[in-house]
Amino acid sequence: MDGIASHGTKVGLARVLGPAHVWALGVGIVLVGEYMGWNFAVGKGGAYAALVACWFAGILYSCVAMIDSEVTSTVAAAGGQYTQAKHIVGPLMAFNVGLYLVFAYTMLEAGNAITLGYLMSVAADMTGATEALDQRPFIILAIVFLAWLNYRGVLATLNFNLVITAFAFCAILVLFVASAPWSADSPLAHAELMSGQAALPYGWLGVLAAMHFGLWFYLGIEGTTQAAEEVRSPARSLPFGTLAGIMTLLIAATLTWYICVGFLPWEYLGDGVNGAVAPLFSAAQMTGSNALIIVLGFGTLFATLASANGCINDASRAWFSMGRDHYLPQWFGAVHPTYRTPYRSIIFLVPIALIFALGAPLDQVITFSILSGLLGYTFMPINIILFRRKWPLDTIKRGYVHPFHPIPALVLLALCSMTYFAVFLGYGTQLIAMVSFYIVVSLWFHFWRYRFVKRADQFTMPWPKPKGY
């Protein structure tokens, strides 16, 4: 239930955000993927395979951004894809999509915290510390501080994200310019580092396997939909912020690949155990410039903080929406009477993120996040096709209409299928375990939790009856 103010009125989420905040939310969550994680794709298939995966994943997420922009500018409520599924497909799909969102963002938050702990240990080594730094206090402090920031209000949260995300993006541009690829004296060594086996060490099967981590360049851009109930003008802000965000990420991803494979051997770049944890920072170290090392060090730090901050925002909104609709205990659907935030959902998800951040390896955490996101992307083609069929373009007003329907939906479905196979090649056990988990919780929802859902209260949009009903 929403919070109740002292004068007895119902308290909802505050509409205080603009297009820049939507951009900061989407890009802020994702940009850490340029600073860490994507390089596992190099280990899967080599340098060229990672580039192919980067661009194919870019096509996948461009489809996601276009589809989300149309549906969310029309379904302007917290919960994002969960709320879309609730209105367009049905309760069981909505329940699963809500869990996909929560797990994708919470696992990504844990991955960010792990990377932040690594940065603190590197900083300690650079200062000449003789003993290995204990990373755990920094991991805990980061998650707790960002949860507190989210608790205190969404405007301050996303203003913070806007500043640090802009800095992290500019840091990539600075490193690219400093490497002077147009100059004969450029330190980039693509010809030497990408010759022979480095190009495609595992052939075209390696290209397919690289798709698994190619998603990490963009994973989370769909999180802009979680701001739908808190933007001042959903029809304008959501499409603008989301589409500007995917354009920003396409540029950042390509530049990141170009810089890193020009500075670092593919074996080191793709080694998730003894190799580059933060490849852009490692590339800056290769330049020998202290100024660049400092800029990229802060860029990596800010990217991890921005991503974790956005993940807490998005995971809590999805969890809050499910509680408000009785898909989960109604206790989670409360809004703070002063700060206008889903404070109980924010607090509840903190220990879950800490468990994974403190007890799981980075590649496993990334894989769990990717798998949950991938399951959510598979739902989107079904969602948009049903949305267009039930409510054709002339029946309800949309803030944005994505072009060439149904081609983006079909392309998205094909690329998702390809990525499932890529994940199965390297992490088949995790894929089977996660699918099994979602089957079990679906049975729990169907046979137990659904009895508490008030079906008549689910449809909050003032739409006409669907075509054919």
Describe this structure in words.
This protein is mostly helical and 469 residues long. It has one domain (20-455): Amino acid/polyamine transporter I (Up-down Bundle), CATH 1.20.1740. It has 17 helices and no strands. The chain has helices at residues 19-30, 32-35, 40-45, 47-72, 81-88, 91-126, 136-152, 154-179, 190-193, 203-214, 234-263, 266-269, 279-287, 290-324, 343-359, 362-390, 407-447. α6 packs across α17 (407-447), α7 packs across α14 (290-324) and α13 runs antiparallel to α14 (290-324). It starts with 18 loop residues before the first helix and ends in a 22-residue tail after the last helix. Residues 4-9 have low confidence and may be disordered.
CATH architecture: Up-down Bundle
How many distinct beta strands? 0
- Residue stretches low in confidence (pLDDT < 50, at least 5 long) are 4-9
Q: Structural class, judged by helices and strands? A: mainly alpha
Termini separation comes to: 31 Å
Helix content: 55-70%
Rg: 22 Å
Number of helical elements: 17
CATH topology type: Amino acid/polyamine transporter I
Keywords: Membrane, Transmembrane, Transmembrane helix
Subcellular location: Membrane
Transmembrane segments: 12-33, 45-67, 88-108, 135-151, 158-182, 202-219, 240-264, 291-312, 346-362, 368-387, 407-425, 431-448
Domain Amino acid permease/ SLC12A: 29-448
